[in-house]
Amino acid sequence: MPTFDAFATAEQVTAGIDLSGKTALVTGVTAGIGLETMRVLALRGARLLVTGRTKEKAAAAIAGLTGVRKDLITPFGCNQEKLSEVAACADAIRALGVPLDIVIANAGIVGKWRRETIDGIEKTFVVNHLATFVLVNRLVPAVAPGGRIVIVSSNAHKRAPAAGIEFDNLSAARGYFFMKQYGQTKLANHLFTRSLARRLAGSGTTANSLHPGRVYTNIFHNIPLPLRVLVDHVLKRQMKDIPTGASTMCYLAAHPDVKSVTGKYFADNRESVTGPHMTDDAMAERLWKVSEDLTKAYL
Question: Is 182 assigned a catalytic role?
């Protein structure tokens, strides 16, 4: 049984794996680890359905690929700030009538300032959690038997409020700090994964989340300028590059070693110890109910 460390690349963890005949959905493919995941899964023969903020941006990302069959990659627009667009994207994908073998929810943001979306909810919480909640739930009926759902969380969950999910402050109207809110959404990503895995038990479909590592990508472009300078000129040297950052996502999506693993949190291509609240199933179920209430118009 092969083992992979923190320095393995996405190509290395999928070496020898044939995904011909498989269909994978990957969100957020216009840059960073989403772009690399799209490329590597296509390299292994998968048919790809991919999303960007707009269909045009997703198509441009596809056009920039080399060494893969671009005719097997279909772009979709999915602006995750607008839950109506998320629902429409999910419906367009389901309308293809193609069973999904892999669903990877990768798209996310770090919000420097508190902003509300068109739905009147704080932007980071919408994009990172509620949009994922809507998209995945609408697509579950289209997932093939034995399919895999992979959700990008982060060790930033340790930056969440001390209480975990602040149910009385989900829109961060009180005490907004960008890393605290980002951490809360990454905690939400894994709690959603745990709840989803329980609901899928016995179906053959698995759901796992992951920490890609501290990866130098354009997700940092929106953080305050002093921190961005620190990242660009100091911390960058300590971060993973993109091929390494995409490895755990591709490992969970494709490797046979984890085909029956579900409800777990991974980092560096192995199951990882979770921080506070990550195994709090009561909190996870409350989050599910609150998320249903917030998104009922789009479920």
Answer: no
Q: 200 with 206: CB under 8 angstroms?
A: yes
246 and 10 Cβ atoms separated by less than 8 Å: yes
> Choosing from 176, 216, 251, 298, which is the catalytic residue?
176
pLDDT at 215 (0 to 100): 54
> For all residues of the chain together, what is the average pLDDT?
92
Per-residue pLDDT tens for 249-289?
999 999 999 999 999 999 999 999 887 799 999 999 999 99
Q: Taking residues 63-75, report their average pLDDT.
A: 98
Rg (CA), the chain: 18
What sign does the dihedral 17-21-26-30 (CA atoms) show? positive
Structure-token match 């919480």, residue found: 125
Q: pTM to 2 decimals?
A: 0.92
Q: Which domains, ranges and CATH numbers included, belong to the chain?
A: 10-294 (3.40.50.720)
Q: How is residue 274 written in tokens?
A: 């979770």
